[in-house]
Design brief:
globular, 15 strands, alpha/beta, Metallo-beta-lactamase, Chain A, 2 domains, seven-stranded mixed sheet
Length: about 325
């Protein structure tokens, strides 16, 4: 005998669940809100290949009687400052973001680091501008030597708990310190930039710095991360500066926190820097301007002979 009523193919609960999943799928696919955009980018990044840098630095061959610098990617620059080795904002793994022990969740590199951690020379000093995850990368810092010292921004020293570095010195704007290493001394002064320092948005008490490095009567500026500001003018009376390491990317639409290439040149000129080394571009997709626009705009804003280098892995040496 045929049943009086046909059995429903799915229950009401299952129907509602499928409807919710469909709505969630549409939201993730088409919404312009931050969370769905981040999910879409993570999915797209998962299958994307990371490009190899065109150049590989050879720090073992560098002359200890001059200043040599190589851009390893993003804001990470390896500097030989008359035989004393400095590493700025070291980020040398394939992703930046929150470290959960089993891996990092966040943006994937566009270009691999020009040197791996194992290829680095012994680092005398790590210079950290602020606590953002694309500048203060815990997995990278944990792999550095116990002989490495660190200079960091105010109220970021707690992030070094359990790190191998024997010393982390916090500086506020205007503070100075002399770092003594087995390869000599380097004087470090922190100065004001226009940015913010919270790592998780709620810890707004953390500082953020630019730095002036001085050794053997020569000076280098590390601009860290900054929007346009007049604070670089105050550096001019302490010059001249051989080199300014300056950010030029992630300004679209974040110009309130990140300078354009033209603004970056203006700040370096305000300070009186001779050569300009561009960073904070081409390595991660942090802004909407794309990987090639910043360097193209930079070349239209400053004399080409003043640009120390243009690509990941390139090396610049002062004669």
């Amino acid at each position: 005998m045929s049943p009086k009523y046909k059995k429903n193919l799915i229950s009401k609960r299952q129907f509602l669940a499928l409807g919710c999943l469909g709505a969630m799928g549409l939201w993730l696919t088409y919404s312009d809100q931050y969370a769905p955009r981040m999910v879409r980018e993570l999915v797209a990044d998962a299958g994307r290949l990371i490009l190899k840098p065109k150049y590989t630095p050879q720090p073992a061959s560098w002359d200890d009687n001059t200043i040599t610098a190589s851009w390893l990617g993003h804001s990470t620059v390896l500097v030989n400052f008359f035989g004393l080795t400095i590493l700025t904002d070291p980020v040398l793994f394939l992703r930046i973001g929150a470290d959960f022990g089993i891996g990092t969740v966040g943006p994937k590199r566009l270009v691999a680091p020009a040197l791996t951690l194992g290829q680095l020379p012994a680092i005398d000093l790590v210079l950290l501008s602020h606590a953002h995850m694309d500048h203060l990368d815990l997995p990278t810092l944990k792999r550095l030597s116990t002989t490495t010292q660190a200079v960091t921004a105010h109220a970021t020293g707690d992030l070094f708990t359990g790190m191998p570095m024997k010393q982390a010195t916090e500086l506020r704007w205007g503070d100075k310190t002399t770092v003594k290493t087995q390869n000599g001394e380097v004087r470090v002064k922190a100065f004001e930039v226009k940015h913010w320092g919270a790592r998780w948005r709620s810890d707004t008490y953390r500082g953020y710095n630019g730095y002036v490095l001085e050794r053997e009567g020569k000076k280098i500026i590390f601009g860290g991360d900054t929007a346009m500001t007049d604070s670089f003018r105050s550096l001019r009376h302490g010059g001249p500066y051989e080199l300014a390491i300056m950010p030029i990317g992630a300004y679209q639409p974040w110009v309130c926190s990140h300078c354009t290439p033209e603004q970056s040149v203006r700040m370096a000129n305000d300070a009186g820097a001779n050569y300009f080394l561009p960073i904070h571009h081409k390595t991660f997709k942090l802004g909407q301007e794309g990987p090639s626009e910043p360097i193209r705009r930079l070349e239209g804003a400053v004399e080409k002979e003043r640009i120390a280098l243009r690509d990941v892995g390139e090396t610049f040496s002062l004669s």
